[in-house]
Amino acid sequence: MKSWLSYFTPQASLRIRTRGCACAVSGMLLAAPALAQVITIDTHGNATSTSSGATVDRRFAQIQPTHVPLTNSVLDTRTRLELIRLLQAEQGFAMRPFPKGHKGLVLEANGKLQPAGEAYLNMVTEQGLSAKPGDRVVITDLKFDHNKIILMLNGGPDAKHRFLRHISIGTGGGYDNPVVPDDGQAPMGARLTLTFKDNVPSLTDKDVKALLSPLISFDLKTPIQAFTDTLPPKLKEAILNHHVMVGMTTDMVMFAMGQPDQKIREMDGQMPIEIWMYGKPPETVQFVRINGNRVIRLEIASVGTPPQVFDKDEVEGMMRTGGAPLAPGEGPRTVATGDVVRDPNTQSASAPPTLRKTGEALPQDDPHARAAGTMRPVEFPKQKPDDYPDASNLPRTPEQADSQDAQPSSDKSKNPDAKPADDKPKAPPATPPAQSPSGN
Length: 440
What we know:
alpha+beta, 18% strand, 18% helix
């Protein structure tokens, strides 16, 4: 008799491993852009996430504990069946990101959430995202343990019949058809565990919903109300008033403005951007520049008025823990178009256009520099006072102006009183007159 392990086909095992690895890699790649985080893979193959600031995003921060009164009586069978009947297939809206994975989130009754902070962010980054804040979630199954209630959301994180998919029954070596066929779809649900101190007390469906309110809202809402309830008040007000702010995600822009009238993709240097255009002339036109999934620039143009440009991130500080802005907001920057009119009595003319950077000094700016080719005013030599205004009083003996004109002589060095020799040839001495013979 064959062991039940022999019915596992090696092809199915290899196929499920390959699909499992592909799903894990695709989950991490899809979660990274949505959360705008940096993923680092260590030498052991573990993925860790690093955030840009010292504080974590408020969506991953610790929750505010609830204050639901609980009884001391233990949950009985009748109450347990009633909870299953009332809560199963109940729909709500996610207030926090729900990660995939077998472990899931653990919520203490009237207590804290585990994990929270960076550990919560790392779980979402590693396991992938099952539901974003504002997404609809459905309780598909409930399980009761000694001191906890396990809720499966959107089908749960584990595949159904994961063992039967590997078992084939047949004769003659034909084991190609498993007991449960594999549909090829990876589970996309999440797990949420509600824990109590000693045991599960007697609860109603309203008590369970109140305990889960920090993570799931069961109130009747529209999708935009469910999404904006997870945001800070100022950001919620901007979305409900159909205003776009720099730093918003694409989901926030879609809830605030809807589908754009036109999309344009282009490159800004080495950075790919996408421009969403809302409105058509002569109406007000908004140009929303997006990089990745964040708004980096907003331009509002109206007929007859200068365009307004917003490029300061106003959302980043709100999404941090506490919801306070990082810096006070600045007013819009107005771009002046056309000729600028200045008052000549109170305003000076603008500087001419130049390619020089601010504070840059060029060589010709130095007054002591004598660079070749620099155009400067002509400088005439200054007149010096004449030492000898009368030419008749000039010295007769000229001074030696050049050392090359001087003729060095060894006799002169020996006898400094010697007079310089005359360059002109000397005339021969005169011959004395001959005396004529006298008769005397």
